[in-house]
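fwd from M.: "can u put these together and see what the complex looks like"

so here's what she sent:
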Amino acid sequence: MLNDIKEVLFSEEYLANIVQRMGKQISEDYKDKNLLMVSVLKGSVVFMADLMRAISVPCRVDFMSVSSYGSGVKTSGVVKIVKDLDIPLAGYDLLVVEDILDSGMTLSYILELLQSRGPRSIRLCTLFDKPERRTVDITADYVGTTVPDAFIVGYGLDYDEKYRNLPFVGILKPEVYGG
Ligand code: PRP
Ligand code: MN
Ligand code: MG
């Protein structure tokens, strides 16, 4: 697995620092709110697990899973719900938690869907932002760090469902994905 990594982009310690900083800011912003953290499976699980423990105000958590149709997914923008939230959203201040904001298709779909359910508020939180790749006009309210347009894996991010368990974020060797 480590042989497939060209270089480490963000160490475990660096990531922990970012997450602590985000947790502090969110705790400050949500101290008088009714926070419900919504994790978008599967990529956000590692970030979510660390971020929720960096938050010092009361909060609830829920999970949803979406997938794109076929292989033309990211360009078609067609997304379907694989697992929906369990909690009705009325009265909650939602924080949607993502690992990476790339084209923006996934988050814009989720944002529109959750908005229609009438929560008190919705904000978007992403650990990584790849603004160069954006095809939809969407920005996150909380961004850990911007990343270059490279194939990154680890800390939840996968290639072909692998490498999510790496504790750091690395750049994949092009030969691994046929680049
Ligand atoms: C990845 C990532 C984001 C999304 C970002 O998820 O975790 O959810 O793509 O890309 P976008 O901004 O272009 O929509 P993916 O669909 O690979 O599923 P996964 O989280 O299960 O890996
Ligand atoms: Mn994802
Ligand atoms: Mg993925």
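replying to her w this: The mean pLDDT is 95.
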